[in-house]
Amino acid sequence: MPSCIPVRAWLAACMLALAALCGSPAAYAGDDELSATLIQFRDADFDGKTELVEKLVVLDNPRVAVILNALSDSRLYFQEDPGRVVIGLGDGSEITIEDAVTGAALGQVGKRDLDRITANNRLRSLIEDRLASLGLSSADPSQRRAAIDVFLRNPDPAGVPRLQARLAVETDAKTRQLLTVALALADLANPDATVRAKAATDLGGQLQPEIRGRLAKAATEDSDPAVREAAQRALSHTQFRLQMLGWAETLFFGLSLGSVLILAAIGLAVTFGVMGVINMAHGELMMLGAYTTWLVQQWLPVNWSLPVAVPLAFLVTALVGIAIERGVIRFLYGRPLETLLATFGISLILQQAVRTIFSPLNRSVSAPDWMSGTFAIGPLEVTMNRLVILGFCIAVFALLWLALQRTRLGLEVRAVSQNRAMARAMGVPSARVDALTFGLGSGVAGVAGVALSQLTNVGPNLGQSYIVDSFMVVVFGGVGNLWGTLVAGLSLGVANKVLEPWTGAVLAKIVVLVFLILFIQKRPRGLFPQRGRAAEV
Amino acid sequence: MLIPRWLLSDRAGLVLLAVLAILGIGVPILSLWTPPDHPLHLSAYTVTLLGKYLCYALLAVAVDLVWGYMGILSLGHAAFFALGGYCFGMYLMRQIGTRGVYGDPVLPDFMVFLNWKELPWYWYGFDHFSFALLMVLVVPGLLAFVFGWFAFRSRVSGVYLSIITQALTYALMLAFFRNEMGFGGNNGLTDFKDVLGYPIHDDGTRIVLFILSILALAGGYLLCRWLVSTRMGRVLVAIRDAEDRARFLGYRVEQVKVLVFTLSAMLAGIAGALYVPQVGIINPGEFAPINSIEAVIWVAVGGRGTLVGAVVGAVLINYAKSWLTGALPEVWLFALGGLFVAVTLLLPRGLIGLLRPRETTT
Is residue B115 assigned to a domain? Predict the structure, then answer.
């Protein structure tokens, strides 16, 4: 192919250019000039240093930012022996140093061999300002945006030409957008009223508090009525966006609370909803799951503990659940009120057992690194652990749904719950199915406990605080209906968070409880009642 | 005939009334007219403890009336107990007057502390003893009536009713924990000084309160016993055993349920009102769902549907609780939990069932 060679040559040229851009510091062309300037720091007074800093800034050398930072932190030294400027990394009598110009490591030297190049606060603020504009030409877009943010917080007219120059060559879309905003902010101080009005309009919808402050000032204090009006309109635009953001935040918090409610209720949806067993010890099974997490963290590093704790908690609580079913509940089928009392007794025993074995004090379960911090969805910042738990809740729900709809056990469970006698006649071992169903529901409660251990204190009373809520979710959604539990949990969570700004957290909870009490009066079988013969109790 | 037939045939009830009468005469003598170093002397602490048990026993009778005879398992009866207690507590708070820490003649201490300027409207009238007594009956009764009216008319029954009664008491607990409610928040009402002018910590006052508790329990027992022996009582049992059949026979099931539920709540309210001056404090913890469930277990242990069993269960379990939480605090919850399981599995008719193996509970 004839075009082959030119293409290759072009590629090679590009590679060369790249190499020149990010090649080794030692090969940089302006290094001599840089070291020459640096040497002058030794004898300069503060005025002289100021001039030298200005000189450094225009040098367009990537080391300049490092050097200025070091100077600002008082880590820049003059080394007498070979007569060069070095940067100290750390403090103490022995300091590791690197060459200021090339960045090459020079090993450790005694502090007495070094001569510190001092800085005062005026110099430091100058450096901060100059570093900001230096950041504008950084190769890293996030560095450039950080530099623009500095300008947004403190719009210095001197910086405007730099911003305009950057805008002419900027290629990164996000950075361009931010630059436009910054320039518009600068235009708010323009003597020309039409420029000011246009700037105000452009700034509408920007959420940064500094911009809102300037706009508010323009809306009341600007001499030109057209500008004031434009600023007013821009502000209401911003207000609208803020409101939307607030709603999005409320929705997320609501979904997050909803996911916790669902996790707490979903095991109950199996034992109560499908089997009709009132298990008051459900909360304590969650507590056991949380304590399993704590135990696992005693043996494994925190980052690996949760993936191990989830199956382990499932196993532990499922076994406890099967033991409860075989030991107590199977004698009480058909007597729901007695089941309620007996399982309440079990819950007291489990609480006291945990109190005796682990102490009555709360245990702290640590969060792994990948669950801490925040995550940004557009302008919305959400905490990572709530996001993970939301996802976890959906995963647990999906798995449980698949288990009930797509497995042999699930088929048998549904058959027994719909018509026990007929299922037995068809050869379903109903006693075994009962035990396994109860084990499944209990295991899911344990898994929920692992998630709860990341949100609340792990103590003997962990379960009690969720028992009323989880029963309400199941009953609200409709007994025997997993989807109902999902919808009920999410809607109760969101309703709670929507109410909170008006009523406060406790009153919101009370309002939701009262609503549920009234709702059950109106529709005793919940949002999505089971139809057909299976619904006859 | 001086003693009506329904009472004469109730031998266990007569024993109970006799025991109450002996207590009513014996305790004052042993407590007031024996020297403190006498071996049979009862300290003020013991008298108060006995009075507390009697209040719990009245609560248990109220629970047994609706659960044992009508089949409604209420997991919220402690709410009516606590409401009655709060009503009487409000009267006692108003009696403190200027003797509070802040010395405000009208406002209780916690309101001064919260910087409130005037008494909330729902505190009006509670400085009158008779009004407070009326409220002790009206507030729990009204709540039970409204709640029952909605719940029973929409035929919420069985487990669902249990769960929403639990939600009710839970919601009330959360509400009373709030300072803004005006009931002292977390600390509740306490630091009482006197009742009807008599110092509340006086031995004589304690004895009077004790005798009143005995009278209330005896009265509550007689009322319930009379009720279940009437035709109405038979309807209750019919509702418990076959609600639909009772409805088809033409009985107004909902009205009967609401009526008896309200009556039961009033009895619980009286128990609470007597409990507060003897214990000296009422706080939102009394609304905790576990308290209601404990009341149910007293009835289950004693024997549901017997009334006497409720009294026996309440006194025995609370005695065991006082003793165990003092001697072996670790064991108490194990014992209580084990009792729940053992009674439901092995003793479905309770301790009274052991005494009367063949007899039916009606």
Answer: yes
**Start-to-end Cα distance in chain A:** 82
Query: Are B174 and A513 within 8 A, CB to CB?
Result: yes
Least confident of A4-18, A208-222, A405-419, B62-76: A4-18
Instruction: Specify the pLDDT at position A19.
Output: 45
For domain A248-535, the CATH architecture is Orthogonal Bundle (1.10)
Residues in chain B within 8 Å Cβ distance of A329: none
Q: How far is CA B48 from the centre of its chain?
A: 15
Q: Is residue B283 part of a domain?
A: yes
- Neighbouring-strand partners of residue A108: A96
For A33-70, letters b (16+ CB in 10 Å) and e give ebeebbeebeeeeeeebbebbeebbeeebbbbbbbbeb
| Pairing state between β A84-89 and A374-377 | unpaired
**How big is chain A, counted in residues?**
537
Q: Where are the domains of chain A?
A: 25-124, 140-223, 248-535
Gap from A341 CA to chain B (nearest CA, Å): 6
Return the higher-pLDDT residue of A95 and B321.
Answer: B321
Cβ distance A263 to A469 under 8 Å?
no
Q: How far apart are CA B275 and CA A355, in angstroms?
A: 30
Residue B245 burial (CB < 10 Å; 0-12/13-18/19+)? exposed
- Domain of B256? 5-355
What does the pLDDT look like over A189-236, one tens digit per residue? 788 888 888 888 888 878 777 788 888 888 888 788 888 888 888 888
Chain A CB contacts of B336 under 8 Å are: 345, 348
Q: What is the pLDDT of residues B267-296, one digit of tens each?
A: 999 999 999 999 999 999 999 988 998 899
Average pLDDT of span A401-406: 91
- Enter the pTM of the model: 0.77
Q: Which of B174, B177, B336 sits opposite A348 (nearest CB)?
A: B336
Residue B361 in any domain: the answer is no
pLDDT of A9 > 70? The answer is: no
Structure tokens at B206: 């304690």
Strand partners, A105: A98
Whether B360 is in a domain gets the answer: no
CB nearest A517 (choices: B153, B167, B348): B167
Q: What is the pLDDT of residues A444-457, one digit of tens each?
A: 999 999 999 988 88
Q: What is the DSSP letter of A527?
A: S
What integer is the mean pLDDT of A324-344?
87
Q: Which residues of A touch B293 (CB under 8 A)?
A: 341, 344
Calpha distance B48→A154 (Å, rounded): 72
Using an 8 Å CB-CB cutoff, list chain B residues near A506.
174-175, 177-178
Q: Per the structure, how many domains does chain B have?
A: 1
Using CA coordinates, name the residue in chain B closest to A475: B160
- Copy the structure tokens of residue B11: 């031998």
Q: Would the CB atoms of B164 and A517 count as touching at under 8 Å?
A: yes
Cβ pair A448, A286 in contact under 8 A? yes
- Shortest distance between the Cα of A328 and any Cα of chain B, in A, equals 7
Confidence of residue A6 (pLDDT cuts 50, 70, 90): low
